[in-house]
Amino acid sequence: MTMSDVQASRLRSESVTVGYGEEPVVRDLSLAIAEGKVTTIIGPNGCGKSTLLRTMARLLKPTDGRVLLDGDPVHDLSTKDVARRMALLPQSPIAPEGLLVRDLVGRGRHPHQRWFSQWSPEDEAIVETALEMTDTAELRDRALDQLSGGQRQRAWIAMTLAQDTDLLLLDEPTTYLDLAHQVEVLDLVSRLNRERGRTVVMVLHDLNLAARYSDVIVVMKDGAIVTEGTPNDVFTPDLLATTFGLDADVLACPRTGLPIVVPVSSAPVPDTLDTVELADA
Amino acid sequence: MTTLMSTMTVPFRLGVASWLVPLRAGLVALAGLVVLAVLVALDLALGDFDVPVADVVRTLLGGGDPGQRFIVMELRLPQTMVAVLAGAALGLSGALTQTFARNPLASPDTLGINHGAAFGAVAVIVLTGSSGYGGGLVSGTLQEVGLPLAAFAGALLTAALLYALSWRRGIDGQRLVLIGIGLTATMVAGTNWLLVKARIQDAASAQVWLNGSLNARGWEQGKPLLYALIVLVPVSLLIARTLNVMQLGDDSARGLGVRLQVTQLLTLVAACGLAAVAVAAVGPLGFVAFVVPQIALLLTGGSRPPMLASMVFGSVLVVGADLLTRVVIPFPLPAGLVTSAIGAPYLIWLLLRTNRKVTA
């Protein structure tokens, strides 16, 4: 991959200010999403990371500034046009009781369909591919509410894949999942990026997972970007203290060399195994 | 077996056109049509003067003797057809609102839309009442145009209030239902006020109408229903695809390219229009729009109330109620009481079930 490829960006925000009420949540923020990379936005609660993602997905309209998709302001494009180029998995998507996996994934074809063309051979093939890519093909006839958290999230990602877009926006895709399922979902995201060339922008809470799965980390605080860069550049004890108010050591993972954040706590450390067992008894 | 059935969908392709046909929903609708045909035949055959079913069929096909022709074609067919059309309109209206709100409690009866329509219609009956006691009917142009329009205006006003009051950065089904309950009370109060103010003959006439009655309904009431269905059924079927996507939540729907406000507005207007013409024709037949889409959903096993099956079973319920009140029960009874008697226990059951699901 050449330098110009890295620099290229189909999705960017320019001096975006956006909020829900009077007070803006994100102020004057500019961000270019690196093409073909996994970009993860992190930051403390209420820093505006989800708001930024939702604005880039055209769900929120900025009060000032603009979001550009392939050079066009997204709010000048039709919602359908945007949906054909950029897929979004919102934070807590809902599904009606009894909805089957294949019906959910099939709905990802919506922006490409017309009333007279609701299940073309192309629709069928792309949904099939999406099911295979996410290992949900065997679950196709199961109802979504019968699946485990990880399976369900993979089905939702399959739906966004059925949209057949190069850009994938994921708003906290691992919320409410236990660690094994979080890894399951993020491994899938990584595979989609490497094998299918999807550009991924996601919001994550877990710093270690963000470090493990991201090419670019964007750190936000109080509606502005504090810093952005590779995980090794971004994660420093200093940044964690100033941005997250977290006293932590940053170690290098013995396996990957990537940063691992270990919080420093004032709680006493149990001395030996014996005392632990004694305390339990 | 049931899971196998519910998973069966058949692609139907013709040139560039393609659809995914849900097989089970189709079969259920077909079975409903058979039941409906039987009920319609019985409704035409039975009454003060029974006509054999075979003769009914013959008469409908253009045969039969003049006496039978008069009874079937002139006396009974118009009322039966109004029952079929009103049931279909109410069933579809309920399927739309329940899908829109993502809540089985949201139907034109519970959201106040029917009562808004009733308010508009009673206003016409009471304020224009010059005809004396009419058993809930006014005559001529006023009946054919004025009553449906007033009912539609009342329904639309209620729906507009409903939408405006429950919109907080999106529509939440629970809030919609609660505000609907408030609006229902308001509209009922308004209707009662009209009844108190009215002359006694008009009030009595309106009261009969308010119970929901099919008695003496004919083409005068049927025509506006038919026109509304001709327009709004295709509209509903066109937005069905988008409604499917809207079930995934507002954010997902917009992420999938749905113009949310436009679709919500279209759905609400269609549901209002259908409820209004039905109410204008036969009065606020209780619980049809509420109970039918959920029964249809139970039978088809999809993820939202099916539209065609809801229409068919709406007709089945209303024609059945007509048959029951005209033939089986030995004294005259408005059909609305029968539908309410079926619907109200279902509402209680639904509330109990919802409660258990939350606490479980």
Automatic annotation (TrEMBL), chain A:
Membrane topology of this protein: Peripheral membrane protein
Domain ABC transporter: 11-247
SMART domains named among the record's database cross-references: AAA
Cell location: Cell membrane
CDD domains per UniProt: ABC_Iron-Siderophores_B12_Hemin (cd03214)
Signal sequence residues: none
Molecular function via GO: ATP binding
Alphabetic keyword roster: ATP-binding, Cell membrane, Ion transport, Iron, Iron transport, Membrane, Nucleotide-binding, Transport
PANTHER family: IRON(3+)-HYDROXAMATE IMPORT ATP-BINDING PROTEIN FHUC
Protein name: ABC transporter ATP-binding protein
Species per Swiss-Prot/TrEMBL record: Nocardioides caricicola
Automatic annotation (TrEMBL), chain B:
Membrane topology listed for this record: Multi-pass membrane protein
Keyword Transmembrane helix attributed: yes
SUPFAM superfamilies: ABC transporter involved in vitamin B12 uptake, BtuC (SSF81345)
Protein localization: Cell membrane
Transmembrane regions: 21-42, 81-101, 113-133, 145-164, 176-195, 225-244, 265-287, 307-324, 331-352
InterPro entries linked to this entry: ABC_BtuC-like, ABC_transptr_permease_BtuC
Keyword list, A-Z: Cell membrane, Membrane, Transmembrane, Transmembrane helix, Transport
Family indicated by similarity: Belongs to the binding-protein-dependent transport system permease family. FecCD subfamily.
Name assigned to this protein: FecCD family ABC transporter permease
